[in-house]
Predict the structure.
Amino acid sequence: MMHSFGTTVRRLTAGAAIALIMAAAAPAYAETPADTLVQAWAIDDIISMDPGEAFEISTAEITANTYSLLVRLDLADTSKVKGDLAESWTVSDDGLTFTFKLKPGMTFASGNPITAEDVAWSIERVIKMDKSPAFILTQFGLSGDNVTEKAKAVDATTFTLTVDKPYAPSFVLNCLTATVGSIVDKKLVMEHVAPVEKTADVKYDNDFGNAWLKTNFAGSGPFKLREWRANEVVVLERNDTYFGEKPKLARVIYRHLKESSGQRLALENGDIDIARNLEPNDLESTAGKEDIVQTSAPKGTVFYFSLNQKNPNLAKPEVVEAFKYLVDYDAIGSTLIKGVGEVHQTFLPKGVLGELDEKPFKFDVAKAKELLAKAGLPDGFTVTMDVRSNQPTTGIAESIQQTAAQAGIKIDLIPGDGKQTLTKFRARTHDIYIGVWGQDYFDPNSNAETFTINYDNADDGKNKTLAWRNAWDVPDLTEQTKAALLEKDPTKRADIYKGLQKAVLDRGPFVVIYQQTEVAGVRKDVKDFKLGPSFDTTFLGGVTKE
């Protein structure tokens, strides 16, 4: 992982070029090399590079460019998937068994051949490790006890997956496009498996290579992960063994730079090629620059805050409803998210089957006070909100802090980086959490499941959806959401999701604020950089620089 790139750029070794670009103390950075794409992006949410564990926005894009999947979303028609490692696939007459034939002659970046055994083991390790994203696959009836029979290699190029119910085939295939469906190099990872002690909570005597893969790489995508330094940099380099069209660039650098103003200055100076977190004011100031262009894409990502139902005040239905009237949606829409999002209040983003474009809530302090009085809290109360220290998150949190105070609710903001706030949120130890949710796969269930399913509300529950993280126990919605997966009629299925969204609007501990429009500032010499419709569909293999 730490080998040199072995090429020179503008009389600098790649290592030296990266060192100059990344020198945080320098007043100016080296001009970016011709074969290197440098992006400024807030990447402090990265916790692990293991695709069986990774469940963060930034990591998903990096994994999409470094790992291969059986099938991948077809960007030409997002209602379909296309083969990645899979050359073809069939579904049995009973709708339970999916058979995939792999393309011949493919290898991992290590040089090891890609076989159906790698596919089977990749799914097995996800199920047995049982990390945060495992529920995307366990929902098909897979468990540690049956996964070796349900997901298996028939021969070197044939893999079968047997599910427990006759789901809509598109749903199963869409789930396999999620990051957790990434295929890892079994032989390489097995060389780094660490023993662990079995306990009542730990069923297996090894870690399936998880400790090593947190910071290392075992994929077959167009790029290889060379290095990740937390809250500093991610470096990708071209994978010359890639089975598809080789990337045009030798390497891609993600430089952690959180402040929009810093990104804008670096972009204007040519110190970076792309700025990924420009705020409205900085977008406006770069709009007229001759050597900078802007590109944008509507994203299937919603921004929300949620109320932990373990907090007795936040668990009161009237308090939940009051918070939905204590957001100044219009002000946020016209300032903090101008150009980077639009006000949206339902959990399904626009463009997804069953999305409900309803915005029943508006800023109404009097209404909120009336609800708080009904809850027995006429004088309000004090509560904390965990806030990732980036924009527009901080600005929106401060806006909510001010508007909630008008109804007597004092919100103490607790800032932290992405990893800190996510870890606390996932442990259910927050009061209020403010953040984003992006689709793990292009199907309405991706959002519906996390917002409306809570299989087990105990602290040690295994399916750690957003409903679970906020201790929202909703058996009725859980059953409705599960039923939607078996509905073959698209119209009827869409109606179920519309009903689920109405239920969350009425009583869910989620206040959805807006849907993201991703915008990037790009130097004009960068060609064919395209933002994807989801957080794992911005592909860099075709990008060039003049």
